[in-house]
Amino acid sequence: MPPELMPAAVYIGDGRIAVQDRPVPVPGPHEVLVEVAQCGICGSDLHLVLEGYARPGTVLGHEWAGTVVSCGAAVSGWEPGARVVSNPTPGCGTCRPCRRGRPSVCLTRAAPDYLSFGGAFCRYLVVRADQLLRLPDSLSTRVAALTEPTAIAVHTVNLSQVASTDRVLVTGAGPVGLLTVAVLLARGVTDITVSEPQEVRRARAAAVGAAAVISPDRLPAPALGRPVDEPFAIAFECSGHASAAESALDQLDFAGTLVFVGTGRDLPRINHNRMIVLELTVLGAYNYDADGFGPALELLASGALPTDLLVEPDDVPLSGVGEAMARLAHGEIAGKVLVRPEVTS
Ligand SMILES: [Zn+2]
Ligand SMILES: [Zn+2]
Q1: Which of 15, 266, 322, 324 has the maximum number of C-beta atoms within 10 A of its C-beta?
Q2: Dihedral over Cα of 266, 251, 213, 287: its sign
Q3: How far apart are the CA of 290 and the centre of ligand 2, in A?
Q4: Closest Cα to residue 49, out of 112, 115, 123, 111?
Q5: pLDDT per position in the chain (345 positions), as tens?
Q6: Gap from CA of 1 to ligand 1 centroid (Å)
């Protein structure tokens, strides 16, 4: 039997997080109780906490993997001990986004609550049984916490329509940029340049397999209406910084594509003249492909991604979530930080 109370990392306002006891949720008939093994810290968690958007009292964290503890009375096909992640809800299949293969922005989904996400910076979660995906035997539960951000990276790469011969620029080598690089490499895209101001992150991007890593100040300014000397077909903006987005657009070749992946508070100025003359495309990638998390799980289980470089080696306890967020925001950490929902006294 699970205990009645569990520790949770709770947003308490003013950009701060505190560990508090919360009641362990009770699964309904069609739900299961999951014990969270690890939950990654997402860039969106950073924005919600450090920029103070989140609602005080919220438990954040949505990049989790865990183990089923108990099942509701009407649940079949699942048992305690099953290792799982939760798949996104399928779209309606008929609305305009669904018809375009983008069900995670389905028009009929419940209005997303951007101020509070899933809530897995805690010990136990209740999850709909029909959304569970079983982890492949070859995939550790810990690494499976990368499933959600990997699904986003796969979606991002798919939306970009990148070809394996394309010259690709990735701006920002934090957890999102590194995963994007890793997924591109797994797709056979090898000519990848990473632009990143922090040395620790440049070094990690090179280890993951970027062909070139540079400081953003080395990206050239283009001549009026002409591409730079060594332009890129596709740029993935993963830093969320306005200056990086503006510079990424400047590095594109004729008919190039800029994909916005990283969100940020400061808005870039888009040079529409350059977009017109070079016929550039700008698009945003936020969610998942129509087939959900299955392909991301398979990719992780295949061993094709260097997960030891994509994830920081030491998990942080619930009491360390606030500090880890600050360090991520300062660019001091390259890889994904995983939270292990135990409390160290
Ligand atoms: Zn996320
Ligand atoms: Zn739909």
Answers
A1: 324
A2: positive
A3: 10
A4: 115
A5: 778 999 999 999 999 999 999 999 999 999 999 999 999 999 888 888 998 888 999 999 999 999 999 999 999 999 999 999 999 888 898 999 999 888 888 999 877 776 666 699 999 999 999 999 999 999 999 999 999 999 999 999 999 999 999 999 999 999 999 999 999 999 999 999 999 999 999 999 999 999 999 999 999 999 999 999 999 999 999 999 999 999 999 999 999 999 999 998 899 999 999 999 999 999 999 888 888 899 999 999 999 999 999 999 999 999 999 999 999 999 899 999 999 998 664
A6: 30
Provide the b/e sequence for 167-179 (b: ≥16 CB within 10 Å). bbbbbbbbbbbbb
Compute, in angstroms, the gap from residue 154 CA to the centroid of ligand 1.
13
| Ligand number with the minimum distance to the CA of 290 | 2
Beta bridge partners of 40: 63, 338
Other Cβ atoms closer than 10 A to 302: 12
pTM for this model (two decimals): 0.94
Token code pair at residue 127 = 């999850």
Q: In what order do the strands lie in the sheet with 192-195?
A: 212-214, 192-195, 168-171, 232-237, 252-260, 281-284
Distance from the alpha carbon of residue 292 to the mean position of ligand 2, in angstroms: 14
